[in-house]
């Protein structure tokens, strides 16, 4: 349970500082508000649930690991170039969600964004870059390692039956 408000002080008590599961919360210098102080084994700026390589750790790409980005990258992996509206409608996402995650993928160098016109209407197209294809392939390989076997054990792609 996370306690956010002040705790009544009893004999020998000290003021309570709330604790959050991803790090402790500490009072800032202004107004008693709280800010997150990162603790633990993750670096600032990295997603806390993705661990660095080490003993027993699996290195999943934090850029692709976000579910919305994984959906976008996996869709782009099946085509040479895809229009924004197709991505939005196929993945059933809002314009803002597709735009936000496509920008993050572009910033990482995984997706190339091309803007142009069809007639007088503006259009946006996405294309997976070589770096994006390599990152996606490595991500899928890592997931297959976690599962313990490749997904396509047979030449026809059907899973093994016992």
UniProtKB/TrEMBL annotation:
Q: What's the superkingdom here? A: Bacteria
SUPFAM superfamilies per record: Winged helix' DNA-binding domain
Q: Which CDD domains match?
A: HTH_ARSR (cd00090)
User: Do you know which InterPro entries this protein is assigned to?
Assistant: ArsR-like_HTH (IPR011991), WH-like_DNA-bd_sf (IPR036388), WH_DNA-bd_dom (IPR027395), WH_DNA-bd_sf (IPR036390)
Q: Where is the composition biased (Basic and acidic residues)?
A: 38-50
**Annotated ranges, domain Winged helix DNA-binding:** 69-147
Report what the protein is called: Transcriptional regulator
